[in-house]
Amino acid sequence: SEMSKDLLPGPYPRTPEERAAAAKKYNMRVEDYEPYPDDGFGYGDYPKLPNKSLHEKDPWYQWDQPDMRHNWGEPMHWDFDMYIRNRVDTSPTPVPWHTMRNHLLAFLGTMLIMFALGEFYPYYRPVGPKQYPFNNLYLERGGDPNKEPPVVTHYEI
Amino acid sequence: MAAGPPPTAAQAYRPNRYVSLPAELDPDTYDASPEKRRAEAERLAIRARLKRQYQLQLNNPKPPAVIEDPALLRWTYARTHNIYPTFRPTPKTSFLGAVYALGPLIFWAVAFKVDRDRREKLIQEGKYVRPFSVF
């Protein structure tokens, strides 16, 4: 782009003067400016903003870009495209997150255990072998119609 | 040992990486010290300056074709062009690179090889039932 090198992001700031210059470049207060830790991950001097999604930003304020809830020149979060309003939402939940997680895992775990038990120990009403009429379907199974079929009884008295 | 006082609402809520603390439970909202007011005033001054710059460009009788947002340009530059110069091989980055780049490659290569060998063994023994599918 046509911006000069001192307006574009650069390497991690080492001296306090570089930090002040970086804060000024990103339109932030020097006290607010906090770069990502210098772990060699490639962040450079980009500021580390709180990981809050755009859902939490004020919906009633007159933003310059209302759909992105972003003002012109304001530093954007590194994961801005993740935190848009169509995607990840970090707004506070009515129930604490750990409570919700525990309830979900308890339900899923119970259902899984019950289904596994049913798989290994199936339970059904007692059944017997199927009984066919007409002397065990003698004619349908190709028995000779002239011969006397063998009598099949399925009961005992 | 007696139980301590019950957890405060903020402690019971426990914000984490996925949800943040609501403003009502955050003690910073109720902090009305002069330092905080000065910080807010400075932030407002920066915001007002940026608003003024933007509005001047927007309401210009001969506006430029595109009003470039330097924050957006810096964001794209940082995410695309600034990664390679600021990257540094450290133990952590090397380990993560191996896990994410080499891990799946080696895993799937081994998985396919083992599966193919097993199928070849079954075919040689004559026990393999070839699957039939119209799709």
TrEMBL record, chain A:
Cell location: Mitochondrion inner membrane
Protein topology in the membrane: Single-pass membrane protein
Region annotation Disordered: where it falls in the sequence: 1-20
InterPro entries attached to this UniProt entry: NDUFB8, Ndufb8_metazoa
Pfam families, per the entry: NDUF_B8 (PF05821)
GO term, biological process aspect, one: mitochondrial electron transport, NADH to ubiquinone
Domain of life: Eukaryota
Family: Belongs to the complex I NDUFB8 subunit family.
Name under which the protein is recorded: NADH dehydrogenase [ubiquinone] 1 beta subcomplex subunit 8, mitochondrial
Organism expressing this protein natively: Tricholaema leucomelas (pied barbet)
Gene: Ndufb8
TrEMBL record, chain B:
Entry keyword set: Electron transport, Membrane, Mitochondrion, Mitochondrion inner membrane, Respiratory chain, Transmembrane, Transmembrane helix, Transport
Cell compartment(s), UniProt: Mitochondrion inner membrane
Subunit structure: Complex I is composed of 45 different subunits.
Cellular component, GO annotation: mitochondrial inner membrane
Entry keyword Transport: yes
Transmembrane segments: 94-112
UniProt similarity note: Belongs to the complex I NDUFB4 subunit family.
Coiled coil region boundaries: none
Keyword RNA-binding found: no
Function: Accessory subunit of the mitochondrial membrane respiratory chain NADH dehydrogenase (Complex I), that is believed not to be involved in catalysis. Complex I functions in the transfer of electrons from NADH to the respiratory chain. The immediate electron acceptor for the enzyme is believed to be ubiquinone.
Superkingdom field: Eukaryota
Gene behind the chain: Ndufb4
Pfam families, per database record: NDUF_B4 (PF07225)
Annotated InterPro entries: NADH_UbQ_OxRdtase_NDUFB4_su (IPR009866)
Topology in the lipid bilayer: Single-pass membrane protein
Name recorded for this polypeptide: NADH dehydrogenase [ubiquinone] 1 beta subcomplex subunit 4
Source organism of this protein record: Tricholaema leucomelas
